[in-house]
């Protein structure tokens, strides 16, 4: 298996620069894993593919205003992308792991100044926030630790909101609409992610109500989307790629609802790859299972898994971290179906969906989507893999 195996021709004209309006009017490609067949529908038609008792599990994380544009001591422009707080370095939350561009030439101790309005701030505008560049992050590719200090009597949160912007992916170059369109309608109030869980962008309150009326249940995990959303696999052998760790939470009530759905013969449908990784990361192969017969019914779609043998189970996770890398050959213990977007070539996400279906099924479906003019990537159309 090579990274090139997950490459495909992506015409630039198909990269969506704005979300569909309304959100649920986008197209939906439905891929059946059993026979590889493909159907072309509209996202609102997802109701037709879900049954009463099925459980949707979505990532409720909210995106930070994580893109900060400031100036270095020389006056040159410097862009900072917030990735995650490092309470292990500063319990008060002032130190963040960041991507700083350009970063290699910034020596420890260099200070970046951020003003409200960014590069368009009037001359002499007040400095709202400063960032002192610290060390490189061990094991990362270009990550830096930055210590932030607010100015003008503001709190750190107030200062970051005054200077920060929602960090749209670099391939979205012309969007000037409402930044809330890059948040899901069910996002939590607290902001933790460097990018949106984009498969969830297609859901509207009305569609969620229609699903509930049919008897489809919905619950939420949280995974704080980090650096690997922005990074392609550069190694020839994807097994050599090192995943960045991300914080995630799978609450006890989600564990119980997943178990109940499985035991009743219903499906667990993950909304997005981040929900997939949360659920699969929370599967503990060493956990003592419940009644083996019940577990076997729960995980009957994965007959070779440890769960069917009476070993392993889904467990609660609080403030856990994961670097789970799902690629062809990986076993899925929890997820039965997946809602997802179309992903960047050569990415870990292409490998994940190819593991859930097959690489040939995914590449054929993507080729058909391109031929049919689907809108691709974060603001684009959706897939249901079932």
TrEMBL record:
Its EC number is 2.4.99.17. This is S-adenosylmethionine:tRNA ribosyltransferase-isomerase. It is found in: Cytoplasm. HAMAP family: QueA. GO terms for cellular component: cytoplasm. Belongs to the QueA family. GO terms for molecular function: S-adenosylmethionine:tRNA ribosyltransferase-isomerase activity. Gene3D superfamilies: QueA-like (2.40.10.240). It holds the Pfam family Queuosine_synth. The gene is queA. InterPro entries: QueA, QueA_dom1, QueA_dom2, QueA_sf. Pathway: tRNA modification; tRNA-queuosine biosynthesis. Transfers and isomerizes the ribose moiety from AdoMet to the 7-aminomethyl group of 7-deazaguanine (preQ1-tRNA) to give epoxyqueuosine (oQ-tRNA). Monomer. It catalyses: 7-aminomethyl-7-carbaguanosine(34) in tRNA + S-adenosyl-L-methionine = epoxyqueuosine(34) in tRNA + adenine + L-methionine + 2 H(+). It is an enzyme of class 2 (transferase). It comes from the Bacteria. Its main location: cytoplasm. GO terms for biological process: tRNA queuosine(34) biosynthetic process. Keywords: Cytoplasm, Queuosine biosynthesis, S-adenosyl-L-methionine, Transferase.
């Amino acid at each position: 298996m090579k990274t090139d195996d997950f490459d495909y021709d992506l015409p630039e004209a198909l990269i969506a620069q704005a979300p569909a309006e309304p959100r649920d009017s986008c197209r939906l490609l439905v891929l059946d894993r059993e026979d590889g067949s493909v159907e072309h529908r509209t996202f609102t038609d997802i109701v037709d593919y879900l049954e009463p008792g099925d459980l949707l599990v979505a990532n409720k994380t909210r995106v930070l205003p994580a893109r900060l544009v400031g100036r270095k001591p020389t006056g040159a422009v410097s862009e900072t992308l917030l990735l995650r707080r490092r309470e292990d370095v500063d319990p008060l939350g002032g130190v963040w792991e960041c991507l700083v561009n350009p970063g290699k030439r910034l020596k420890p101790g260099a200070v970046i100044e951020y003003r409200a309005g960014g590069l368009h701030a009037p001359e002499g505008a007040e400095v709202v926030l400063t960032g002192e560049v610290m060390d490189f992050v061990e094991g990362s590719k270009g990550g830096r630790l930055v210590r932030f200090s607010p100015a003008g009597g503001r709190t750190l949160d107030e200062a970051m909101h005054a200077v920060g912007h929602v960090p749209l992916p670099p391939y979205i170059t012309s969007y000037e609409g409402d930044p809330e369109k890059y948040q899901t309608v069910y996002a939590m109030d607290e902001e933790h992610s460097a990018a949106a869980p984009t498969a969830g962008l297609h859901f509207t309150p009305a569609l969620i109500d229609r699903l509930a009326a049919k008897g489809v249940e919905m619950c939420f995990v949280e995974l704080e989307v980090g650096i690997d959303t922005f990074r392609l696999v550069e190694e020839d052998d994807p097994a050599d790629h090192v995943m960045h760790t991300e914080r995630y939470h799978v609450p006890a009530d989600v564990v119980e609802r997943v178990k109940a759905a499985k035991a009743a013969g219903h499906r667990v449908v993950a909304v997005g790859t981040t929900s997939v990784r949360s659920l699969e990361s929370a599967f503990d192969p060493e956990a003592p299972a419940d009644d083996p017969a019940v577990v076997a019914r729960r995980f009957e779609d994965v007959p070779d898994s440890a769960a069917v043998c009476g070993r392993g189970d889904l467990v609660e996770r609080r403030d856990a971290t994961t670097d789970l890398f799902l690629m062809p050959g990986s076993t899925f213990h929890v997820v039965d179906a997946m809602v997802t977007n179309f992903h960047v070539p050569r990415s870990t996400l292409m490998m994940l969906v190819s593991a859930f279906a097959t690489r040939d099924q995914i590449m054929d479906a993507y080729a058909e989507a391109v031929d049919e003019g689907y809108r691709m990537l974060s603001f684009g159309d959706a897939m249901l893999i079932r």
